[in-house]
Amino acid sequence: MLRCMGWRRALAAEDGSPTQTVLDLGAVTFMDSSAISVLAAAHRDAAAAGGELRMAALTAPVARVVGIVGLDTIIPCYPTLPEALAA
Question: What's the pTM?
Answer without folding.
Answer: 0.82
